[in-house]
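Format notes (please read before filing issues)

Several people have asked whether sequences and structure tokens are stored in separate files. They are not. Every record keeps both together, in the order shown below: the sequence lines, then the token lines. Line labels are part of the format and must not be stripped during preprocessing.
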Amino acid sequence: MKRQKKSVLLLLLFAFALAMTTATIAAVPIQPLWQNVEQATARVTHSGTTAQCTARIIGLSGTTRISATMTLERVTDSNVITVRTWTQTTNSSSLVMSESATVTSSGTYRVRVDATVTRNGVAESISVSG
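Then the structure lines:
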């Protein structure tokens, strides 16, 4: 009987410890794991009939080239429509893009950035959206 109580107690203790571990893991934000990139962001603001799109990519030490395509998209209930696309390349470790486009006054817009970042001769493709 004592052995059964110890087993139940140990089982409950284990379940409690597992639940605490799971809660701790769930609280950690999910972030992309890149080999060549320290930071990549994309953002769009929409005011009236103008959408302002910005992108920023910062490569890790050793980055020699960044090539990016920034795409402004209008999102509807049934599909995604490309509004405008811009491309930029730099032979440095950081790239900043800032562009604007005329849009309709209503609607939902997002910006997507697809880039290739070359560091120490190795190219890595990334995508971010906002």
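For reference, the curators noted about this record: The chain has a mean pLDDT of 87. Helices lie at 2-26.
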